[in-house]
């Protein structure tokens, strides 16, 4: 019986190749989009859950009140782990894990002449591989980090540094201010992509006290903030409150006046709770899109299958007369749906594998291929398959099995029109979704362009930023001089940090605000103003304003924040013990993200010479290079890189255009926009295909009517209009439903931005016209084909 | 007695008035009869066959089939009854286009949940009997009208029904093919199958051993 159903479903599929193709591929595209999104979401939600005791592992976090702002810190003093473990019986083990925050230079004993700059270098306690579930491939799990200057590296790194040879016992030299020799004691599996902890190298933490750069990290025994991210494994999740209490007590014991609040944050939540990350936003928007696309595909399937069903009414009649019960007919159509869905599912798996690199390229994430076989993802897939089978099989089975055999065998008009209303609803829903996506996509794109075009108060074009490392040292002066000599370079400037990337926070007070508040500070040299195009409100009259340490330049926002006079020149701000006179005011410019209004800012200005030696050389600042417009940037960068390599061989050369740095702040919106583009295309394809197939069916059903009308003298244009008009009405209706929905969502979305574009009415009109055009194109080709057919032929078919 | 109709009325409403499709039809059919129902188009032949075949409802009257009161039965029981005892043959053959000759004939057996091996044997017998073994893998579209009707009859017979209802079985056939089909019916009748056919043709009607004339839904006294 089952085989018989499969057989007839298969033959029907072959008989109606076009509609079968459209049905299956429409569903497959929808499922593929859904799968990719589910894959992404499942991966994001699986972070750190692979650890055996994942739900009992917590990171220590401190809530610090700094100048009125609450700041969260997760680096603790070296003793915090041990103190807490000793003081609280609920803590079963603890771990300190410190990451090098700047790239360091490594060389292996195998290739002494090749050095690599590595970012993911960490130091961990001996129990690292017991605490977490990372696997040791070579070496003894418990012992790899037991001695100072032991080093464990990932399989990839082992390959990079030692090729196919056994790395155990080999050495790697680590160049910081001094050079240290580490012995490789183990190789670990590559970190899974869903791990928020992903070092390529783990060194024993016992090495650090004998490293000059890190001795400072161990100079205190008190329970307080420090430089070690600290993890605790509790006996049970219920103990969180008591451990937090213990930590608080320890903190007060160490320093009775401490106000920091210590808390535990669950490891498995940390990935999604990263402050300022766009991931949670994606995680709420993407499943919504996935659902929309899936609905689109299902609706498409439904309307096509009911349309196809009308062609099957005779078969159903015959079956019923031959003894089929309603149940067996329903079952038959369920089996058919199952066949279609399974085929579509297979196609969609292939499709999503093909689209995967592209999709994740847009999102700029890496996911291990092995995650495809992750049990939770597989169970989601199976769930999706079952749901699709249930959802698609239900309605056709219901409708078809209700067919009355006698009516069907007479092939009366009534049975042919069955499901027509449902198909109208389906088409409308499809176009509502398509138009909502289209409008949203356009508005997201407009917002992106709008924000990029916002005047941020700086001249962003033709400006290159070179973040330098401490390793540049005293070479910073000849380096800057040589760059300035390049013919295309017009200007250079120095700041402490690349703009948009950071600033120092000082505590400052004024006469009006004696209690003081936080004030961002940026140390710059005097060329900063001209090179970045900062506009003066009142420029210091004294040409040498930068030479005096007791002077400061502020922006307009600082005037209101510190309640200074309209012309604050001559007033002063107090920073700790020292007071600085305000000698100049600049117009506000954005120095952090555009999401917030411009904050107050103070600029500590130095002369060019001291700026170069102090800001740039000693601490590793950022050199700005303004070049002439229309410069070949490729050549410029190559030239600068060759100059750089003369003066700093230790740190790798890095550069960024200010334009790009600015754009990078909108990367999450940009990705959203690109993902939307992808899904709009998919939605349009599905909706278009569905409409095309429906138009084909409708033309087939009305073939006799068309024939009669033609014999009676209707023109091709009139007939085409007759066939197309029904669909046009539906698209119009969809437009009316979709517009307010799209407006609402986009209005909500825009609330997150301090600079928002206006939602123009023509976006809606354009999207509506676009959908209408799509409908006209797909429907009218079919309509015209039917309309120009010879009526004698079509009248004979009945 | 195979079946008995007592004062059957069936009507549709048209503009508030009743239009009678069947008007006070009473009929008794014994096992082994071969009845021809005659009458012009629209006289109610097909409707009467559909009512007898339990595919269609009626508003008034009683219908007993093998001592069961059809008019009181639930849909489920009714379909069980006709599945068991009645085979249908249509003017337009009504074969399933996507199934082969073999599979078409097999279909009623599938719905009776007969085991695969037994199905094979039964279908093979039927193919053999109608001399269409060589055509078993062809699709309906590849057959002539007469051949298609043969398959239709084979399908009606496969479940060993007591009664065959044939609605204009030769209507789409030429006279030679028609004659063959009628001779086949005669043979089947002699083997004990009760047959009720609706027909336009006097000569076809003569194959039956009783003729009922219908006009506007009423029996015409001969």
TrEMBL record, chain A:
Naming one, the record's GO cellular component terms include:
plasma membrane
The signal sequence is none
What is the topology of this protein in the membrane according to its UniProt annotation?
Multi-pass membrane protein
The ABC3 transporter permease C-terminal domain, residue ranges: 288-405, 678-790
Task: Cite the MacB-like periplasmic core domain residue spans from the record.
Answer: 21-249
Determine if Ligase is one of this entry's keywords. no
Does this UniProt record's set of keywords contain GTP-binding?
no
Membrane-crossing segments per the record? 21-42, 282-304, 337-360, 380-404, 425-444, 675-699, 711-738, 758-779
| Predominant place of localization | membrane
Subcellular location per UniProt equals: Cell membrane
Q: Which UniProt keywords apply?
A: Cell membrane, Membrane, Transmembrane, Transmembrane helix
Name the Gene Ontology molecular function terms of this record: transmembrane transporter activity
Query: PANTHER family this protein is in?
Result: ABC-TYPE MACROLIDE FAMILY EXPORT SYSTEM PERMEASE COMPONENT 2, MEMBRANE COMPONENT OF TRANSPORTER-RELATED
What is this protein's record name?
A: Putative ABC transport system permease protein
Native species:
Leeuwenhoekiella marinoflava
Its lineage opens with:
Bacteria, Pseudomonadati, Bacteroidota, Flavobacteriia, Flavobacteriales
UniProtKB/TrEMBL annotation, chain B:
User: What Pfam families has UniProt attached to this entry?
Assistant: ABC_tran
Q: Which PROSITE patterns match?
A: ABC_TRANSPORTER_1, ABC_TRANSPORTER_2
This protein is called ABC-type lipoprotein export system ATPase subunit
Gene3D superfamilies with a match to the protein in the record:
P-loop containing nucleotide triphosphate hydrolases (3.40.50.300)
**Keyword ATP-binding included in the entry's annotation:** yes
List the molecular function annotations (GO) for this entry: ATP binding; ATP hydrolysis activity; transmembrane transporter activity
Keyword Disulfide bond belongs to the record:
no
The cross-references to PANTHER family, in alphabetical order and at most eight, read: CELL DIVISION ATP-BINDING PROTEIN FTSE, LIPOPROTEIN-RELEASING SYSTEM ATP-BINDING PROTEIN LOLD
Q: Which UniProt keywords apply?
A: ATP-binding, Lipoprotein, Nucleotide-binding, Translocase, Transport
What family does the database annotate? Answer: Belongs to the ABC transporter superfamily. Macrolide exporter (TC 3.A.1.122) family.
**Cited SUPFAM superfamilies:** P-loop containing nucleoside triphosphate hydrolases (SSF52540)
Which cellular components does GO assign to this protein? membrane protein complex
- ABC transporter domain mapped to chain residues: 3-222
